[in-house]
Write a structure and sequence with these properties.
It is built from twelve helices and 21 strands. The chain is α/β, with parallel strands linked by helices and about 425 residues long. The strands form three sheets. Strands 4, 14, 15, 16, 17, 18, 19, 20 and 21 form a nine-stranded mixed β-sheet that branches. Strands 5-6-7-8-9-11-12-13 form an eight-stranded parallel beta barrel, surrounded by five helices. It has a three-stranded antiparallel β-sheet with strand order 1-2-3. Strand 1 and strand 2 form a beta hairpin. Helix 2 packs parallel to helix 9, helix 5 packs across helix 6 and helix 8 runs parallel beside helix 9. Bound molecules: ligand LLP.
Protein backbone atom coordinates (compact mmCIF):
# COMPACT_ATOMS: atom_id res chain seq x y z
CA UNK A 1 0.00 0.00 0.00
CA UNK A 2 1.21 3.51 -0.72
CA UNK A 3 -0.03 7.08 -0.41
CA UNK A 4 -0.15 8.03 -4.10
CA UNK A 5 -3.84 8.04 -4.88
CA UNK A 6 -6.24 9.89 -7.16
CA UNK A 7 -8.45 12.49 -5.53
CA UNK A 8 -11.10 14.25 -7.56
CA UNK A 9 -9.38 13.23 -10.78
CA UNK A 10 -5.83 14.25 -9.85
CA UNK A 11 -2.93 12.23 -8.47
CA UNK A 12 -1.96 13.15 -4.93
CA UNK A 13 1.10 12.37 -2.84
CA UNK A 14 -0.50 12.15 0.61
CA UNK A 15 -2.38 15.47 0.81
CA UNK A 16 -0.42 17.31 -1.86
CA UNK A 17 -1.38 17.46 -5.50
CA UNK A 18 1.41 16.11 -7.69
CA UNK A 19 0.79 18.74 -10.36
CA UNK A 20 1.19 21.45 -7.72
CA UNK A 21 4.66 20.09 -6.93
CA UNK A 22 5.44 19.89 -10.65
CA UNK A 23 4.49 23.54 -11.05
CA UNK A 24 6.83 24.47 -8.21
CA UNK A 25 9.91 22.39 -9.02
CA UNK A 26 9.59 21.57 -12.74
CA UNK A 27 9.80 18.11 -14.27
CA UNK A 28 11.14 15.52 -14.07
CA UNK A 29 11.43 14.92 -10.32
CA UNK A 30 11.22 12.24 -7.68
CA UNK A 31 8.55 12.51 -5.01
CA UNK A 32 8.51 10.49 -1.80
CA UNK A 33 5.81 9.92 0.78
CA UNK A 34 6.77 10.03 4.46
CA UNK A 35 3.69 8.06 5.51
CA UNK A 36 4.57 5.20 3.14
CA UNK A 37 8.19 5.08 4.29
CA UNK A 38 7.13 5.02 7.92
CA UNK A 39 4.45 2.42 7.33
CA UNK A 40 6.83 0.06 5.55
CA UNK A 41 9.52 0.40 8.19
CA UNK A 42 6.99 -0.32 10.93
CA UNK A 43 5.67 -3.39 9.12
CA UNK A 44 9.13 -4.95 9.31
CA UNK A 45 9.78 -3.76 12.84
CA UNK A 46 6.49 -5.28 14.03
CA UNK A 47 7.00 -8.47 12.00
CA UNK A 48 10.11 -9.28 14.03
CA UNK A 49 8.48 -8.77 17.43
CA UNK A 50 9.00 -10.17 20.03
CA UNK A 51 12.51 -11.24 18.96
CA UNK A 52 15.33 -8.84 19.84
CA UNK A 53 15.96 -7.23 16.46
CA UNK A 54 17.12 -4.27 14.41
CA UNK A 55 15.80 -3.31 10.98
CA UNK A 56 18.73 -1.80 9.08
CA UNK A 57 17.54 0.13 6.05
CA UNK A 58 19.63 -0.76 2.97
CA UNK A 59 20.37 2.83 2.13
CA UNK A 60 21.77 1.94 -1.27
CA UNK A 61 18.11 1.96 -2.33
CA UNK A 62 17.66 5.62 -1.35
CA UNK A 63 20.26 7.57 0.57
CA UNK A 64 18.86 11.09 0.68
CA UNK A 65 19.52 12.67 4.08
CA UNK A 66 15.84 13.46 4.61
CA UNK A 67 14.85 9.84 3.94
CA UNK A 68 17.52 8.57 6.34
CA UNK A 69 16.44 11.01 9.05
CA UNK A 70 12.80 9.98 8.62
CA UNK A 71 13.67 6.34 9.17
CA UNK A 72 16.32 6.92 11.83
CA UNK A 73 13.72 8.80 13.91
CA UNK A 74 11.73 5.55 14.04
CA UNK A 75 14.76 3.67 15.35
CA UNK A 76 16.02 2.24 12.07
CA UNK A 77 19.58 1.10 11.69
CA UNK A 78 21.40 1.49 8.38
CA UNK A 79 23.07 -1.04 6.12
CA UNK A 80 25.91 0.78 4.35
CA UNK A 81 28.17 -0.44 1.56
CA UNK A 82 30.70 2.34 1.14
CA UNK A 83 32.55 5.03 3.01
CA UNK A 84 30.20 7.50 1.35
CA UNK A 85 27.12 5.75 2.68
CA UNK A 86 28.72 5.52 6.12
CA UNK A 87 29.33 9.27 6.03
CA UNK A 88 25.74 9.88 4.91
CA UNK A 89 24.36 7.72 7.73
CA UNK A 90 26.46 9.57 10.30
CA UNK A 91 25.51 12.94 8.81
CA UNK A 92 21.85 11.97 9.22
CA UNK A 93 22.52 11.41 12.91
CA UNK A 94 22.51 7.60 12.93
CA UNK A 95 24.72 6.39 15.78
CA UNK A 96 27.57 4.04 14.87
CA UNK A 97 26.07 1.22 16.90
CA UNK A 98 23.12 1.18 14.48
CA UNK A 99 25.29 1.00 11.33
CA UNK A 100 26.16 -2.29 9.66
CA UNK A 101 28.90 -2.23 7.01
CA UNK A 102 28.33 -4.69 4.12
CA UNK A 103 30.03 -5.10 0.75
CA UNK A 104 32.69 -7.26 -0.92
CA UNK A 105 35.33 -4.60 -1.41
CA UNK A 106 35.70 -2.46 1.69
CA UNK A 107 38.96 -0.54 1.55
CA UNK A 108 41.34 -0.20 4.49
CA UNK A 109 40.48 3.50 4.63
CA UNK A 110 36.74 2.75 4.80
CA UNK A 111 37.33 0.26 7.61
CA UNK A 112 39.45 2.76 9.51
CA UNK A 113 36.82 5.48 9.28
CA UNK A 114 34.08 3.14 10.45
CA UNK A 115 36.17 1.85 13.36
CA UNK A 116 36.91 5.39 14.40
CA UNK A 117 33.33 6.61 14.04
CA UNK A 118 31.70 3.54 15.59
CA UNK A 119 30.14 0.51 13.97
CA UNK A 120 27.64 -2.15 14.95
CA UNK A 121 29.36 -4.80 12.89
CA UNK A 122 31.25 -5.40 9.68
CA UNK A 123 29.79 -8.07 7.45
CA UNK A 124 33.00 -9.65 6.23
CA UNK A 125 32.88 -11.30 2.84
CA UNK A 126 36.29 -12.91 2.31
CA UNK A 127 39.42 -14.10 4.09
CA UNK A 128 41.65 -11.31 2.71
CA UNK A 129 39.11 -8.77 3.94
CA UNK A 130 39.09 -10.46 7.35
CA UNK A 131 42.88 -10.30 7.61
CA UNK A 132 42.91 -6.67 6.53
CA UNK A 133 40.25 -5.71 9.06
CA UNK A 134 42.14 -7.52 11.80
CA UNK A 135 45.33 -5.68 10.93
CA UNK A 136 43.74 -2.26 10.94
CA UNK A 137 41.83 -2.94 14.18
CA UNK A 138 45.02 -4.13 15.90
CA UNK A 139 46.92 -1.08 14.65
CA UNK A 140 44.22 1.12 16.17
CA UNK A 141 44.38 -0.82 19.43
CA UNK A 142 40.78 -2.05 19.23
CA UNK A 143 38.62 -4.93 18.09
CA UNK A 144 36.21 -4.96 15.18
CA UNK A 145 32.83 -6.67 15.70
CA UNK A 146 32.19 -8.96 12.75
CA UNK A 147 29.71 -11.33 11.18
CA UNK A 148 30.93 -13.46 8.30
CA UNK A 149 28.75 -13.30 5.23
CA UNK A 150 28.00 -16.85 4.25
CA UNK A 151 27.11 -17.77 0.70
CA UNK A 152 24.50 -20.51 1.18
CA UNK A 153 24.37 -21.52 -2.52
CA UNK A 154 20.64 -20.95 -2.83
CA UNK A 155 18.85 -19.86 -5.99
CA UNK A 156 16.91 -16.69 -5.16
CA UNK A 157 14.87 -17.04 -8.38
CA UNK A 158 15.19 -13.38 -9.25
CA UNK A 159 16.83 -11.37 -12.06
CA UNK A 160 20.38 -12.68 -12.63
CA UNK A 161 21.91 -9.23 -12.12
CA UNK A 162 20.55 -9.01 -8.56
CA UNK A 163 20.88 -12.64 -7.38
CA UNK A 164 23.72 -12.96 -4.89
CA UNK A 165 23.36 -16.26 -3.05
CA UNK A 166 24.65 -18.79 -5.58
CA UNK A 167 28.16 -20.16 -5.28
CA UNK A 168 29.17 -18.61 -8.61
CA UNK A 169 28.32 -15.10 -7.34
CA UNK A 170 31.12 -12.90 -5.96
CA UNK A 171 29.48 -12.60 -2.56
CA UNK A 172 30.29 -14.20 0.78
CA UNK A 173 32.23 -17.18 2.02
CA UNK A 174 31.15 -20.60 0.72
CA UNK A 175 29.12 -22.29 3.43
CA UNK A 176 31.22 -25.43 3.11
CA UNK A 177 34.26 -23.45 4.29
CA UNK A 178 32.51 -21.59 7.09
CA UNK A 179 33.90 -23.60 10.05
CA UNK A 180 37.46 -23.18 8.87
CA UNK A 181 37.11 -19.44 8.34
CA UNK A 182 35.32 -18.93 11.68
CA UNK A 183 38.15 -20.79 13.40
CA UNK A 184 40.67 -18.44 11.81
CA UNK A 185 38.57 -15.39 12.69
CA UNK A 186 38.37 -16.44 16.34
CA UNK A 187 42.15 -16.65 16.47
CA UNK A 188 42.66 -13.09 15.26
CA UNK A 189 43.19 -10.59 18.09
CA UNK A 190 41.58 -7.64 16.30
CA UNK A 191 38.25 -9.33 15.62
CA UNK A 192 35.25 -9.98 17.80
CA UNK A 193 33.14 -12.66 16.10
CA UNK A 194 29.53 -12.05 16.97
CA UNK A 195 27.39 -13.59 14.29
CA UNK A 196 26.49 -14.77 10.82
CA UNK A 197 25.34 -12.70 7.87
CA UNK A 198 23.80 -13.52 4.51
CA UNK A 199 21.92 -11.87 1.68
CA UNK A 200 20.75 -13.98 -1.23
CA UNK A 201 19.35 -11.42 -3.64
CA UNK A 202 16.90 -8.66 -4.29
CA UNK A 203 13.28 -8.50 -5.47
CA UNK A 204 12.51 -12.03 -4.23
CA UNK A 205 8.87 -12.78 -4.76
CA UNK A 206 8.65 -16.04 -2.79
CA UNK A 207 9.60 -17.02 0.74
CA UNK A 208 10.96 -20.42 -0.20
CA UNK A 209 14.53 -19.38 -1.17
CA UNK A 210 14.81 -17.31 2.02
CA UNK A 211 13.55 -20.22 4.05
CA UNK A 212 16.05 -22.60 2.50
CA UNK A 213 18.89 -20.19 3.23
CA UNK A 214 17.75 -19.42 6.78
CA UNK A 215 17.52 -23.11 7.60
CA UNK A 216 21.12 -23.48 6.51
CA UNK A 217 22.05 -20.55 8.75
CA UNK A 218 20.23 -22.15 11.68
CA UNK A 219 22.18 -25.39 11.21
CA UNK A 220 25.41 -23.46 10.83
CA UNK A 221 24.69 -21.54 14.06
CA UNK A 222 24.44 -24.80 15.99
CA UNK A 223 27.58 -26.19 14.37
CA UNK A 224 29.58 -23.06 15.11
CA UNK A 225 28.31 -22.92 18.67
CA UNK A 226 29.41 -26.53 19.12
CA UNK A 227 32.82 -25.42 17.84
CA UNK A 228 32.92 -22.90 20.68
CA UNK A 229 31.88 -19.69 18.90
CA UNK A 230 29.44 -17.37 20.57
CA UNK A 231 26.98 -16.71 17.74
CA UNK A 232 24.59 -14.15 19.15
CA UNK A 233 23.45 -12.16 16.11
CA UNK A 234 22.04 -13.20 12.73
CA UNK A 235 21.90 -10.70 9.88
CA UNK A 236 19.44 -12.18 7.43
CA UNK A 237 19.92 -9.61 4.65
CA UNK A 238 17.31 -7.82 2.59
CA UNK A 239 15.61 -8.75 -0.61
CA UNK A 240 11.88 -9.08 -0.01
CA UNK A 241 10.25 -8.00 -3.27
CA UNK A 242 7.51 -5.49 -3.95
CA UNK A 243 4.57 -5.58 -6.36
CA UNK A 244 5.67 -3.53 -9.39
CA UNK A 245 2.36 -4.07 -11.12
CA UNK A 246 -1.12 -3.93 -9.77
CA UNK A 247 -2.06 -7.07 -11.60
CA UNK A 248 0.57 -9.70 -10.77
CA UNK A 249 0.67 -11.88 -7.71
CA UNK A 250 1.77 -9.84 -4.75
CA UNK A 251 4.99 -10.99 -3.05
CA UNK A 252 4.72 -12.21 0.55
CA UNK A 253 4.03 -9.61 3.22
CA UNK A 254 6.60 -8.55 5.82
CA UNK A 255 4.41 -10.25 8.45
CA UNK A 256 4.65 -13.57 6.58
CA UNK A 257 8.38 -13.05 6.18
CA UNK A 258 8.65 -12.37 9.92
CA UNK A 259 6.73 -15.53 10.77
CA UNK A 260 9.08 -17.54 8.56
CA UNK A 261 12.09 -16.00 10.32
CA UNK A 262 10.69 -17.01 13.69
CA UNK A 263 10.02 -20.50 12.37
CA UNK A 264 13.51 -20.98 10.98
CA UNK A 265 15.84 -19.21 13.42
CA UNK A 266 13.60 -18.10 16.31
CA UNK A 267 14.62 -21.01 18.54
CA UNK A 268 18.29 -19.97 18.53
CA UNK A 269 17.82 -17.00 20.85
CA UNK A 270 19.85 -14.74 18.58
CA UNK A 271 19.31 -11.07 17.96
CA UNK A 272 18.00 -10.77 14.40
CA UNK A 273 18.91 -8.09 11.90
CA UNK A 274 17.41 -7.58 8.47
CA UNK A 275 18.50 -5.19 5.71
CA UNK A 276 15.46 -4.34 3.59
CA UNK A 277 15.84 -1.54 1.07
CA UNK A 278 13.33 -1.82 -1.74
CA UNK A 279 10.35 -2.81 0.39
CA UNK A 280 10.78 0.28 2.55
CA UNK A 281 11.55 2.89 -0.11
CA UNK A 282 10.31 1.41 -3.42
CA UNK A 283 6.61 2.11 -3.25
CA UNK A 284 7.26 5.24 -1.21
CA UNK A 285 8.38 7.07 -4.34
CA UNK A 286 7.26 8.07 -7.80
CA UNK A 287 9.09 9.76 -10.65
CA UNK A 288 7.06 12.46 -12.31
CA UNK A 289 7.75 13.39 -15.89
CA UNK A 290 6.07 15.45 -18.60
CA UNK A 291 5.24 14.48 -22.16
CA UNK A 292 7.37 16.50 -24.60
CA UNK A 293 5.93 15.09 -27.82
CA UNK A 294 3.54 12.45 -29.01
CA UNK A 295 5.22 11.07 -32.10
CA UNK A 296 3.40 8.95 -34.62
CA UNK A 297 5.94 6.52 -36.06
CA UNK A 298 5.60 3.79 -38.60
CA UNK A 299 3.32 1.20 -37.08
CA UNK A 300 3.82 2.53 -33.56
CA UNK A 301 3.36 5.66 -31.56
CA UNK A 302 5.83 7.11 -29.10
CA UNK A 303 5.32 9.12 -25.95
CA UNK A 304 8.52 11.12 -25.64
CA UNK A 305 9.01 12.20 -22.02
CA UNK A 306 11.38 14.66 -20.39
CA UNK A 307 12.54 11.88 -18.03
CA UNK A 308 15.09 9.43 -19.36
CA UNK A 309 17.21 6.37 -18.65
CA UNK A 310 19.74 8.51 -16.80
CA UNK A 311 17.01 9.47 -14.30
CA UNK A 312 15.53 5.99 -13.85
CA UNK A 313 17.72 3.26 -15.26
CA UNK A 314 15.85 0.18 -14.05
CA UNK A 315 13.84 -0.47 -17.23
CA UNK A 316 16.89 -0.36 -19.48
CA UNK A 317 19.19 -2.14 -17.04
CA UNK A 318 16.97 -4.95 -15.75
CA UNK A 319 14.05 -4.82 -18.20
CA UNK A 320 12.15 -3.74 -15.12
CA UNK A 321 8.47 -2.89 -15.29
CA UNK A 322 7.23 0.32 -13.69
CA UNK A 323 3.57 1.20 -13.85
CA UNK A 324 3.21 4.58 -15.58
CA UNK A 325 0.04 6.48 -14.80
CA UNK A 326 -1.27 9.85 -15.94
CA UNK A 327 -1.30 12.47 -13.20
CA UNK A 328 -4.73 13.61 -14.42
CA UNK A 329 -6.98 10.61 -13.82
CA UNK A 330 -8.45 9.31 -17.06
CA UNK A 331 -12.23 9.21 -17.22
CA UNK A 332 -13.68 5.80 -16.40
CA UNK A 333 -13.72 3.72 -19.56
CA UNK A 334 -11.51 6.21 -21.46
CA UNK A 335 -10.02 4.69 -24.58
CA UNK A 336 -6.45 3.48 -24.41
CA UNK A 337 -3.88 2.95 -27.13
CA UNK A 338 -0.44 1.30 -27.12
CA UNK A 339 2.63 3.54 -26.97
CA UNK A 340 6.35 3.06 -26.66
CA UNK A 341 7.26 5.32 -23.76
CA UNK A 342 10.74 6.74 -24.21
CA UNK A 343 13.08 9.47 -23.03
CA UNK A 344 15.17 11.97 -25.00
CA UNK A 345 18.55 10.20 -24.57
CA UNK A 346 20.24 9.15 -27.80
CA UNK A 347 19.99 5.40 -27.31
CA UNK A 348 17.28 2.94 -28.20
CA UNK A 349 17.83 1.55 -24.69
CA UNK A 350 16.25 4.73 -23.40
CA UNK A 351 12.88 3.04 -23.47
CA UNK A 352 10.73 2.79 -20.35
CA UNK A 353 7.99 0.60 -21.81
CA UNK A 354 7.05 -0.93 -25.12
CA UNK A 355 3.50 -1.06 -26.42
CA UNK A 356 2.09 0.08 -23.08
CA UNK A 357 -1.60 0.93 -23.13
CA UNK A 358 -2.13 4.53 -22.12
CA UNK A 359 -5.04 6.93 -22.32
CA UNK A 360 -4.69 9.81 -24.75
CA UNK A 361 -2.01 12.25 -23.64
CA UNK A 362 -0.63 15.44 -25.15
CA UNK A 363 2.43 17.62 -24.83
CA UNK A 364 2.79 18.97 -21.30
CA UNK A 365 0.70 16.25 -19.68
CA UNK A 366 2.27 14.68 -16.60
CA UNK A 367 2.83 10.99 -15.92
CA UNK A 368 4.04 9.25 -12.77
CA UNK A 369 6.26 6.19 -12.65
CA UNK A 370 5.19 4.15 -9.67
CA UNK A 371 7.50 2.17 -7.37
CA UNK A 372 10.42 4.46 -8.16
CA UNK A 373 11.56 5.26 -4.61
CA UNK A 374 14.16 2.49 -4.52
CA UNK A 375 17.14 2.34 -6.89
CA UNK A 376 15.83 5.37 -8.78
CA UNK A 377 17.52 8.62 -7.72
CA UNK A 378 20.53 6.76 -6.32
CA UNK A 379 21.29 5.16 -9.68
CA UNK A 380 20.79 8.33 -11.71
CA UNK A 381 23.59 9.88 -13.74
CA UNK A 382 24.20 13.06 -15.70
CA UNK A 383 24.49 11.23 -19.03
CA UNK A 384 23.82 13.59 -21.96
CA UNK A 385 24.56 16.41 -19.46
CA UNK A 386 21.12 16.03 -18.02
CA UNK A 387 21.04 17.34 -14.45
CA UNK A 388 20.26 14.95 -11.60
CA UNK A 389 16.58 15.51 -11.06
CA UNK A 390 15.23 17.01 -7.84
CA UNK A 391 13.87 14.96 -4.99
CA UNK A 392 10.83 16.10 -3.06
CA UNK A 393 9.54 14.74 0.24
CA UNK A 394 5.88 15.02 1.18
CA UNK A 395 4.51 14.82 4.69
CA UNK A 396 0.77 15.27 5.03
CA UNK A 397 -0.07 18.55 3.31
CA UNK A 398 3.51 19.84 3.14
CA UNK A 399 6.31 19.19 0.73
CA UNK A 400 9.96 20.15 0.57
CA UNK A 401 12.68 19.88 -2.03
CA UNK A 402 15.21 17.55 -0.40
CA UNK A 403 17.68 17.77 -3.26
CA UNK A 404 17.55 20.62 -5.76
CA UNK A 405 18.20 20.33 -9.46
CA UNK A 406 21.69 21.64 -10.20
CA UNK A 407 22.03 24.38 -12.80
CA UNK A 408 24.02 23.79 -15.96
CA UNK A 409 26.58 26.27 -14.66
CA UNK A 410 27.01 24.26 -11.47
CA UNK A 411 27.46 21.08 -13.47
CA UNK A 412 30.01 22.63 -15.80
CA UNK A 413 31.88 24.29 -12.95
CA UNK A 414 32.73 20.85 -11.53
CA UNK A 415 35.11 20.24 -14.44
CA UNK A 416 38.66 21.55 -14.15
CA UNK A 417 40.66 22.84 -17.06
CA UNK A 418 44.31 21.74 -16.87
CA UNK A 419 46.94 24.44 -17.02
CA UNK A 420 48.02 23.58 -20.55
CA UNK A 421 44.56 24.36 -21.86
CA UNK A 422 44.21 27.69 -20.18
N1 LIG B 1 21.74 -6.14 1.85
C1 LIG B 1 22.68 -6.35 0.91
C2 LIG B 1 23.96 -6.90 1.32
C3 LIG B 1 22.42 -6.03 -0.45
O1 LIG B 1 23.37 -6.25 -1.36
C4 LIG B 1 21.17 -5.49 -0.81
C5 LIG B 1 20.87 -5.14 -2.20
C6 LIG B 1 20.21 -5.27 0.20
C7 LIG B 1 20.53 -5.63 1.52
C8 LIG B 1 18.87 -4.69 -0.05
O2 LIG B 1 18.09 -5.45 -0.91
P1 LIG B 1 16.56 -5.04 -1.16
O3 LIG B 1 15.81 -5.25 0.15
O4 LIG B 1 16.53 -3.63 -1.58
O5 LIG B 1 16.11 -5.96 -2.21
N2 LIG B 1 19.66 -1.92 -8.39
C9 LIG B 1 18.87 -3.13 -8.31
C10 LIG B 1 18.88 -3.76 -6.95
C11 LIG B 1 20.27 -4.06 -6.42
C12 LIG B 1 20.25 -4.67 -5.05
C13 LIG B 1 21.62 -4.80 -4.49
N3 LIG B 1 21.72 -5.27 -3.15
C14 LIG B 1 17.45 -2.82 -8.79
O6 LIG B 1 17.18 -1.70 -9.16
O7 LIG B 1 16.63 -3.71 -8.83
Amino acid sequence: MDHFLYRDGALFAEDVSVSEIAAAVGTPFYCYSTATLERHFRLFDEALEPMPHLVCFAMKSNSNQAILKTLAALGAGMDVVSGGEYARAKAAGVPGDRIVFSGVGKTIEEMRVALEGGIRQFNVESEPEMEALNAIAVSMGGRAPIALRINPDVDARTHAKIATGKSENKFGIPIARAREVYARAAALPGLDVIGIDLHIGSQLTELEPFEQAYRKVADLTETLRADGHEIRRLDLGGGLGIPYTRSNDAPPLPSEYGEMIKRTVGHLGCEVEIEPGRLISGNAGIMVSAVIYVKHGEGRDFLILDGAMNDLIRPSMYDAHHDIVPVREPAAGAEQAPYDIVGPVCETGDTFARQRNMPELGAGDLVAFRSAGAYGAVMASEYNTRPLIPEVLVQGDQFAVIRPRPSFDEMIARDNIPEWLL
